[in-house]
Amino acid sequence: MTIRVFFVLALLLFSSSFLQVARAQSDPEAEVVEGIEEGGDLGIVGDDVQDFSSESYSPAPGIETICVFPKNPSKVVAAGEERELLVGMKNDGESNLNIIAIQASVHLPFDHRYLVQNLSVQAFNNATVPPSAQATFPYIFAVSKFMQPGSFDLVGTIIYEIDQNAYQNVFYNGTIEVTEPGGMLSVESVFLFCLGVALLGLLGLWIRGQLQNLSKKTKRAPKAKVEVGTATTDASMDEWLQGTAYTQSQSNKLKKKK
């Protein structure tokens, strides 16, 4: 019965593992160089101005991007709560670069064809990066409060314009860890922890039972007693002693017993 319960709990633990993917590894964050736009008016229009998800542009040559999650190296995002990331941009081209918008989307980690959520689009109307310059742009986003805790892939793009031609760069394509609001401890985490403790307990009981059965087998039935039988008188010995005082005394003893 204990073995059946053990295998049932093991099956539940195995099925629950599909609800989560391995947690995001903390990659060393690159430093964003403070650009000329820092502290100035970036002309942030707001979010949900225009959806660029249906548009696909190629990156412009000489443009480099980088992404940093300030004070959040593990990239933990609480469902329904706003988070900020910084997009660094370096213009090694020969023309001014005008930032149009920053957008992002959340996908399943094992297949990006499955879109989980399109995040807000943050538009700009006064953000320019001159040639041979660098700048940093903030992007504030929030995943749905109904999103299940777990690991997801965040894909962030920045759309910009050079000489009235639109381009885009993917500044981040990696894992984020979505947690329940208010902390990283979720109901699923508590369930998995309790299930693991129960499995360890049952495993310990099973090992103990096996050891007890093994010790019982070693204590087998006591060794068979060696029966010492009575000695029998050889017939030749009787013939040799016939007529002696020994045979006469033996015959007298038998007569007395009768």
List keywords for this structure.
258 residues; 11 strands; three-stranded antiparallel β-sheet
Structure characterization notes:
The chain has 258 residues and is α+β, with helices and mostly antiparallel strands. The chain is built from four helices and eleven strands. Strands 1, 3, 5, 6, 7, 8, 10 and 11 form an eight-stranded mixed beta sheet that branches. It has a three-stranded antiparallel beta sheet with strand order 2-4-9, with no helix packed on it.
Give a brief description.
This protein has 258 residues and is of the alpha+beta class. The protein contains four helices and eleven strands, in the order H-E-E-E-E-E-E-E-E-E-E-E-H-H-H. The strands form two sheets. Strands 1, 3, 5, 6, 7, 8, 10 and 11 form an eight-stranded mixed sheet that branches.
Topology:
Elements: H1 2-16, E1 44-47, E2 63-68, E3 76-78, E4 83-91, E5 97-108, E6 111-118, E7 122-124, E8 128-129, E9 133-141, E10 150-162, E11 165-179, H2 187-218, H3 235-241, H4 245-257
